[in-house]
Amino acid sequence: MDVLESPVYRSQDRAVSHLIPTIYEVLEEILMRCKSTACQYSALHGLGHMALNDTKTVEPIIRRFLREGIYADKVKEYAEEAITGYIQ
């Protein structure tokens, strides 16, 4: 897990803008398929950073996870924070 969300901050940069849809797909896959709490936190952390710039894309991903995913209670709390974009 590394800084996948960084191209979002440079979304106007044509050299990286094509990566953004793939980044969302990767983070959503990790979130929905990985049962590891560490992986879920990592994906939520990246999505949380991205939410500051693109809530309309991030919020449905996290809401779907909360509806359909398998997670611990503490992950649910972090997911709620990630939707706002203000994560720790």
Protein architecture, described:
The protein is mainly α and 88 residues long. Helix content is 72%, strand content 0%. The chain contains six helices and no strands. The chain has helices at 6-9, 14-17, 20-33, 37-51, 55-68, 73-84. α3 packs antiparallel against α4, α3 (20-33) runs parallel beside α5 and α4 (37-51) packs antiparallel against α5. It starts with 5 loop residues before the first helix and ends with a helix. The mean pLDDT is 86.
Regions with little confidence, pLDDT below 50 for 5+ residues = none
How widely separated are the two ends?
16 Å
Number of helices: 6
The biggest sheet, with number of strands, parallel, antiparallel or mixed sense and barrel status, is: none
Order of helices and strands: HHHHHH
Total strands: the figure is: 0
Shape: globular
Q: What is the typical, i.e. mean, pLDDT?
A: 86
Helical residue percent? over 70%
Q: Which band does the percent of strand residues land in?
A: under 5%
Structural class: mainly alpha
Radius of gyration, in angstroms, nearest whole number: 12 Å
Oligomer: single chain
